[in-house]
Amino acid sequence: MTTLRTNLPARLDRLPFGRWHWRVVVALGITWILDGLEVTIVGAVASVLTKADTLALTDTQVGFAASAYLAGAIGGALVFGRLSDRYGRKRLFLVTLGVYLVATLLTACTTGPWSFALMRALTGAGIGGEYAAINSAIDELLPARVRGHADLAINGSYWLGAALGALLSIVLLDERLIPPALGWRLAFSLGAVLGLAIILIRRHLPESPRWLILHGRVAEAEAIVSAIERAVIGDPARLGPPPPAVEMRALGTVGYGHIARVLLSRFRTRSYLGVTLMFAQAFAYNAIFFTYALVLTRFHGVPPSHAGWYLLPFAAGNFLGPLLLGRLFDVVGRRPMITLCYGTSGVLLAATGWAFQAGLLTATTQTLAWSACFFVASAAASSAYLTVSELFPVELRATAIALFFAVGTGAGGVLAPTYFAHLVESGSAARVFVGYLTGAALMGLAALAAWAWAVPAERRSLEALNDELLDRAP
Q1: Which of 263, 280, 279 is closest to 271 using CA atoms?
Q2: Which spans in 88-146 are helix H?
Q3: Rounded to the nearest 5°, which phi and psi values hold at 338?
Q4: How many helices (H) does the chain have, and how many strands (E)?
Q5: Cβ-Cβ contacts under 8 Å for 181 (sequence gap 6 or more)
């Protein structure tokens, strides 16, 4: 470990939000759109893939492919997250998008259950790796005063991908327009086309100056920050006198012992908070979203081919929630907003479940109730990713994101769909209500954890949040 004097992080945080930052948001935030697109497309084509003129998969093989995608996402997050901390954000956000692009294109070329499952696992690995590298880079490049709003809006864009996937499935799976044997292949190919367009933009984004400082490469970081200032403001002199230099640690690549000490000792309560938030949102989302069509079909008589239309208002609510509520996370504060969003979504989820089991809802009103509930829950879920990204030091930021993603998705993501599908299969609205109450209770528990452990991170630099400033004097 060495120390050095620099004002580069402060220079990044004082910049006005401009066109350059929008380019970062679009180029890196596309990850969530791609994930929403992938998950929705697979759900839509599942029944088509069981036909003899496609892949002739069994229902078990379709479920195994979904599990392979999830396992790939967890493994990809852990592997690529660690590599992002070791080799840099830019290298990895190019590699992970490349993995996704190739794997989803090869998915469209598969000919059997095993090759399909393998390509789904590799696609998931690319997406999981994206989460770690991308969230790290976004937080380290955007000004502190807009970090909360920007992160929530970007994470909420998952539902733009879900809406796009729903619309594409309606067109590409219409046998009157496209033969079934071709439609599902086109659906996966379009994701690769979108990924290729974005990788061309990402090539021009810089490495994170904060990561470069960590590795003692101050001259490179200085050149990048100066270029960003010119791109955003033109003449840096218009920003006024430069902020004072401070001493910071240049740790370089750290080992697993250091990571364990930070997560389990130094920032133990932050780790408790991250696990609780990630698990609760993963359970609630996967319980509802992965059985969305089942509930509409079994309890409300909606034809499977029409389920995509009901997904659109649900996706709209999920996207608009983080977009409209996100600003409050920077103004009102992290602790009150995370607590409020988790607590409110838990209450709304329980109320929706009660109305459902009482027979008070139709397919339309059920969808509207879900949309209202997840308008708030989507902001809560996005705040979980914001929390685990900003509350841990730069040397292990991507690794921390990967670990909490793996724990939340691995536990909540695997358990919830199986548990909730079992309840739906029973045909009992009362038993499904128990599932709703389980999700509501977990969201309520997360609200209590946020009230007890959340950190007032609004408008504060990443360095100040993680005690990385050794000397704050000029």
Answers
A1: 263
A2: 89-107, 113-141
A3: -65, -45
A4: 20, 3
A5: 53, 54
**Count of C-beta atoms within a 10 Å radius of residue 224:** 19
Distance, in Å, from the CA atom of 43 to the CA atom of 63, rounded to the nearest integer, reads 10
DSSP characters for 119-130?
HHHHHHHHHHHH
Phi, psi of 369, rounded to the nearest 5 degrees: -65, -45
Residue 280 to residue 427: CA distance in whole angstroms: 25
* Helical segments of 290-392, H only: 292-300, 307-331, 334-357, 363-390
Burial class (CB in 10 A: 0-12, 13-18, 19+), 124: buried
Query: Locate tokens 């499935």: which residue?
Result: 169
Taking a C-beta distance cutoff of 8 angstroms, is the pair 410, 237 a contact? no
The DSSP line for 37-76 is HHHHHHHHHTTGGGSTTTT---HHHHHHHHHHHHHHHHHH
Contact 339, 329 (CB under 8 A): no
Contacts (Cβ under 8 Å, ≥6 apart) of 418: none
CA dist 210 and 283 (Å) reads 34
| Identity at 418, one-letter amino acid code | T
The tokens of 329 are what?
Answer: 């996370």
CA dist 222 → 52, 64, 380 (Å): 60, 49, 36
Pairing of strands 2-6, 246-250: antiparallel
> To the nearest 10°, the Cα dihedral for 465, 214, 409, 335?
10
Token pair listed for 456:
């007032």
HEC per residue, 194-258: HHHHHHHHHCCCCCCHHHHHHCCCHHHHHHHHHHHHHHHHCCHHHHCCCCCCEEEEECCCCCHHH
Tens-digit pLDDT string for the chain (474 aa): 688 889 999 999 999 999 999 999 988 888 888 888 887 777 777 777 888 888 888 867 877 887 788 889 999 999 999 999 999 999 998 899 999 999 999 999 999 999 999 999 999 999 899 888 888 989 999 999 999 999 999 988 888 888 888 788 778 777 788 887 888 888 888 888 888 888 888 888 999 999 999 999 999 999 999 999 999 998 878 888 889 888 888 888 999 999 999 999 999 999 999 999 999 998 888 778 767 777 887 888 887 667 778 888 888 999 999 999 999 999 999 999 999 999 999 999 999 999 999 999 999 999 999 999 999 999 999 999 999 999 999 999 999 999 999 988 777 766 777 777 778 778 888 988 998 899 999 999 999 999 999 999 999 999 989 876 654 433
Type of residue numbered 49 = L
